[in-house]
Structure formats: structure tokens, C-alpha cells
Design goal:
Layout (H helix, E strand, L loop, with lengths): L2 E5 L2 E2 L2 E2 L1 H10 L6 E8 L5 H6 L4 E8 L8 H11 L5 E5 L2 H13 L4 E5 L1 E2 L4 E6 L4 E6 L6 E5 L14 E5 L29 E5 L10 H10 L2 E4 L1 H5 L20 E5 L5 H7 L4 E6 L6 H4 L2 E4 L2 H15 L2
Parallel strand pairs: 1-4, 1-6, 4-5, 5-12, 6-11, 7-11, 13-14, 13-15, 15-16, 16-17
Antiparallel strand pairs: 2-3, 8-9, 9-10
Helix pairs in contact: 3-4, 5-9
Length: 317
Amino acid sequence: MTQVLVIAEHAHGKLNAATAKCVTAASSLAGAEIVVAVFAVPGSPVAAQAAQIAGVARVLEVAHAANEHALAATIAPQVAEVAAPFSHVFGPSTTFGKDLMPRVAALLDTAQISDVMSIESATRFRRPIYAGNAITTVEAAAGAKIVATIRIASFEAAAGAGTAKIEVISPQAALPTHTKFVELVAAGGDRPDLQSASKVISGGRALASADAFKIIYGLADKIGAAVGASRAAVDAGYVPSDMQVGQTGKIIAPELYIAIGISGAIQHLTGIKDARTIVAINKDAEAPIFEVADIGIVGDLFTIVPELEKLIDASRK
């Protein structure tokens, strides 16, 4: 039997939807037994949430004081020990997974398969290369333990009607002392997480300044959207780099994506190709973003965005 260990991502006692998407990916493996590992502190409710994911056979609750903060250096040795009997170890292709999984692969002395977007067999996987311009098929050696990050934009989240059993375990792996938690600074504040939000609004270089970028935050607040940016906007210093959407930033798959003042470079389009509905606002009618947009609005964003806010306000009266 193929045994798959999925590493749960969570924060503030809430399971990230990326975990359920990794479970969906794991279920693509014929006859897979899927086990979710939750690395948390004693008493955390996250294991109970993971147990409700359909298709999960068991949840391993690794409750340790060292897991209060998700430090890859601390969690990786525990994962490596827990993963011993499993043929596959999956983690999300998020900031958390990209930080953790290479360390896990190194400790297990195996290569990592990154950004898996489809699974053809227990050893064959498809993933994007060249900024998403090509898809390659990767064949892992038979018998090798497979460590992979899952491109969460490529999979729907598994349903939530599961009733998996929870087992509390205590790995004996020696934890490093050279890394310790100091502070967590979230650039997005209280806004939805960029990679799991159902609505995302991004701004581009056309905003022209960090101060002008505030118009994007205003519209996002109106509809409860996460805020992203193009690489050009990040390079220009309008916003922090962790807001970048695209092949070299974050891959997203929201229900609604609004691109404002973004021309549509290929690396940006790669990051949004799984968005369900794309709305583009740009004064350049020839901008490439319009080739992929479901709805295109040609005009000055500094005129159109305030008008959209007025329409939203009017619709709520």
C-alpha cells in the first residue's frame, strides 16, 4: 500500500486550506493511505480540524512545546523521524512548505520534487518549468522515498466530512538550538492570506508610488480581498516582496482576481492562471492581461477604482 504523510500547515489554531488540497493530491495515488501530521503545541485544536478532512485515515498529533511557532529548522527533524514508514511525504508549495520540505528531503537523503501540479503514478509527477511556459514530467526512482511540495493552486480542497482517528505521538529527534523564534511580522495585517483567499486584488507599476498603492487597499477592504502586486510594483518599492504574485512570487487560485494597472507579463500570468474569474483594469487596451481576462475595463485606474467603490457602497444600501 502507498502510504502518504501530509504535513499540515496552520497558524493561530486554524488549519490552512492548503492541507486539504495536499490531501486531494495524495488521493490521486491509487490505494493511498493518507495520514496528516500536525506539529503543534499540546491542546491545539488543529488536529481535530485535520481529522475532519475527507479521505484522511489517521492524524498524527505531534504536540511539543517547540512547535509553538512553525520554524522549519525545528519541525524538519521531527518530520524526518515520523516519515520513516511512509513512501511519500507531501507539503504545500507555500512559504511554509518551501521553507520546510527541502530540509526534510535533505534529512531523508532524497531529492525533492517541487510544485507538483498533477500525479500520474506513485513515481511520475508533472510540474511547471521555465516560469510556467512548459510542463515537465518527472520520474522518481522506484523504491525511493518521495518528498514533494504540492502546487495548491492546481488542486481543489478535499471535503470536510471526515472522521479520522487522532494519535498523539512523541518523536525523539534531537532539535537544533541554533534557531529560535524572535518575532512574526505579517505585512498583510488582518487581511486574508494571499494564497488561500477567495478574492485577490493586485496592483502594478501603473500605481506609480507606494502612497498611490493605498487605492488598492481601499478597494480590497470593501470586498474583503487579499492584496497582491506584480513584480514590477515590488521592484519599484511600492509594496513588500511577500506580496508578489507570479511564478517568482506566490501562485494563487482565487475565485475572483482583479488586476489593476498590471500589463500581464508571462511570469505574472503564470501565477494567476488558476484563478476562476479575472478582471483587468488598464488604460492600455493592448496590454497582454486582456488576453486572459474574463472582464476587461480600459481606462485610468485612478478614475475607475473610486467609481467601483461607489457602486459597491450603493449596492449595499
